[in-house]
Amino acid sequence: MIEGSTITRTAQMALRLSSVNKWCVTGTPIVNDLFGLFLFLDYDPYSVNFWWKTLVYTPFCRGDIKILENLLGLFFTPIEEHFYRRQHVDSSKEIVARIRRLQNHNLKLSELDRNTIGTILRPMLKLRQSCCHPQVNTVECEESHRAHISSLNGLAGLHIINEEWKKAVEVYREVLRLVVEYEEKNQNGYSSVASHINKFIRDSRCKA
């Protein structure tokens, strides 16, 4: 992409490309080029300058940041939400621990040397990698997924011990739903398994 600019020849050429799907990546902070990105994506109505200014830009300049948060918000599956929350908590704790090791806590960030700043912010690398390249931490995500499934199976077992059959079925159905979601998302050759599980979930005889 061309930094979202709408006036350069390269940007004009990119806007003329016909396509079915579009995506864009920016490696720099977005300042005044956010509209250019929506224009390239042809994301109606925000790709129209009038509506962009009316619905987003002007309210944002007046201090209403909610509209921009809603526009750029991401929706996570329960597994993704658990994974990213855990990454955030772990990284935050490690950063706080590193800051506490500093002898002088009254120093400004601009007064710290490059090595010290790098040491403090190193835990953020894992969080950034998780956001930009989830596959980097796939193993940990899979372990969290297995642990979550195991906990649900244990919960269902407790319901069975207490003869709470309806609750046990509901928990098991949630387990099956998570398995199907995982297999479909990874598309790793278990489509037939996911298909059979989907049939089981839809089977009226298995309803609680």
UniProtKB/TrEMBL annotation:
Residues 8-74 form the SNF2 N-terminal domain. It comes from the Eukaryota. GO terms for biological process: DNA damage response; protein polyubiquitination. One of its GO terms (molecular function) is ubiquitin protein ligase activity. Its EC number is 2.3.2.27, 3.6.4.-. InterPro entries: ATP-helicase/E3_Ub-Ligase (IPR052583), SHPRH_helical_1st (IPR048686), SNF2_N (IPR000330). The keyword Hydrolase applies. One of its GO terms (cellular component) is nucleus. Keywords: Acyltransferase, Hydrolase, Transferase. Residues 138-185 form the E3 ubiquitin-protein ligase SHPRH first helical domain. PANTHER family: E3 UBIQUITIN-PROTEIN LIGASE SHPRH, E3 UBIQUITIN-PROTEIN LIGASE SHPRH FAMILY MEMBER. This is SHPRH. It comes from Lepeophtheirus salmonis. The lineage of its organism: Eukaryota, Metazoa, Ecdysozoa, Arthropoda, Crustacea.
